[in-house]
Automatic annotation (TrEMBL):
<dbReference type="InterPro" id="IPR017451">
    <property type="entry name" value="F-box-assoc_interact_dom"/>
</dbReference>
<feature type="domain" description="F-box protein At3g26010-like beta-propeller">
    <location>
        <begin position="26"/>
        <end position="224"/>
    </location>
</feature>
<dbReference type="InterPro" id="IPR056592">
    <property type="entry name" value="Beta-prop_At3g26010-like"/>
</dbReference>
<dbReference type="InterPro" id="IPR055290">
    <property type="entry name" value="At3g26010-like"/>
</dbReference>
<dbReference type="Pfam" id="PF24750">
    <property type="entry name" value="b-prop_At3g26010-like"/>
</dbReference>
<protein>
    <submittedName>
        <fullName>F-box protein At5g07610 family</fullName>
    </submittedName>
</protein>
Amino acid sequence: MPIFPLTTPSSPPTPTLINFDFLNVPHLLLNVTQSCNGLLLVEGTLDENQSPSTLFVCNPITKRFATITGVPKKSNFFLAYDPLKSLHFKLVSVQSVNRLGWSDATLDWDDYSTHAHKIAIYSSETACWSDTRVCFVVPSTMKMHLGVYCNGSVHWYLKAKESFYFDVENQCLKTYPMPPNIENHEKSHFSESRGRLHMMLLSPQLLFDIYELKEDYSAWSLRFHRLDLSRVHAPLHDLYVLIGNTLIRLFHMLCVAGQEKEQDFMLMLIFHDGTLFSYNVVDNTITELSEFESIIESRVPWFEGYAFRSFEFIQNLSPVGVSTA
């Protein structure tokens, strides 16, 4: 797993490579699913088609980790950790259950869905799971695994006027608005960076709008409007190809990141041949970070089902679990 600094250097940066040998579980397939304030959530499965049997919360810098067993089946997991408030972390489990077993849903946005979701929380302080008694029903098309943790809550998006989030501390669901005209756009990226939620929307004209959610959750601010990446010159790379009458993107958006300077914004793009670039939206500079040809065998991810995920990672010495020393 490579870690790249999201800066604009004069020469391509050297990534920090980490592995998870310190977990000492060679019999498990490991998958990093989330990064939260210096900690990583890693799922361990016996088979790639199975639900995770074990969860690990680790600091790859200090190689300390906590092992969580008794994992709920058919669940999506989200790591909640803020070292400024507590040295303990929490895990939010959103489990798919049969709606017939629930007569009183906390939130019901789909009268026709047969599946509901219930939430449980694991606390590293007590080392056990607890039921929140929060149950909700949402459209079956909603991608629950794409929830984003930010400022004490797990957020989901919908192509509607509003969506919802789960307040971990108060164990309740709340609603918040979606960006305007989201129904007419393709959702391109939804993520957290430096304590703020960002959403990047792609218009039918292949122009990007980047929104940032206001601190009071009242509305989204439009940070960049009609961003035309076709004008970005990536060395030896085309961003689009015309197939028939359809313009196809040859890159995949990995990351939308705010920078130390409030006005700066960085995008991370990976191309069909595995080349990784960072792009500064403000000064229109693009930097090649690395190539992953040996890893992805030059496969186009969105054509052949190969998925890429990236996470904003803040290196620190956050204590967690046990040491491998």
